[in-house]
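Side project, low priority. Logging it here so it doesn't get lost.
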Amino acid sequence: MSPAAIGALLGLVFGAGLLLVIRRLPFLRKPSVDDRIGPYLRDLGGGNVFLGVTTSSSPFSAIVRLFGPSLRAGALRLERILGGSASIRRRLARAGIDQSVEEFRIEQVLWGTVGFGIGLLIALVALSLGAGNPIGLLVLSGILAVLGVLSRDTYLTTQVSRRERRLLAELPTVAELLALSVAAGEGPAAALDRVARSCRGELAEELKRVLAETRAGETLVRALDGLADRTGLVALSRFADGLAVALERGTPLADVLRAQAGDIREANRRDLIESGARREVSMMVPVIFLVLPVTIIFAFYPGAVGIRLIAG
């Protein structure tokens, strides 16, 4: 790369940085309405980062507080480009993450920024070694930024899957404990409270939320319906619907819970068998493409060498 091109690239970077600094000078930046009234609404904002407050446990929370205006603007642009707020809100609820869509968008911006920074670092190393095209390296940085944004969305889907697996693993035990409590003479609400206090895990936290909603004035049936809507799992929805129907119609609740626990364990057993069958097929790939060729080489190579020596 010629010295002129390197100087032009450095000048472009310096000019862009200088422009950003000038744009963020206090006397040139007009505060928005949210920025002006945000400090007076901290108790009412619910931790909304667009009011300048964040209560998220994210590791990026300090960066959000430091670069709040720029990140909020980037999150708004990203929301206009990608959309899908309803899907993100539903997946956040299913993952059990106490986070708003705006906070999630800011995390996506930060992940994209990290990807772009990695791309710039690779570009600087390549240019210092005299390899690579500046335009191609800039495109690579942009691709890494896009991958960073999409990786946060993919990671959210992974978090949802992990939590759903934990809920399904805890559900049979919780159902049997509820059946024991009800059979011992406790009411449905008291049994839920006992199990929620005795157990640890994702499902216990969901039961605590159901009890909190009932204490706030919601009926137990409506709270159980909300549990089914939040989780989105068929087995858990069937469990909540069974509880609701038993409470409404007076069906023996202990028998219903025992039957549901047996059904859930049977479904888990079928899923385990299906997963084992899929893994068995996947294990054939290294056997066929790695182990078998190496075995054939070890079997035939000495013979081939012996034939070549005899023929020579």
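Brief comment: Confidence is low (pLDDT under 50) at residues 44-56.
Revisit when time allows.
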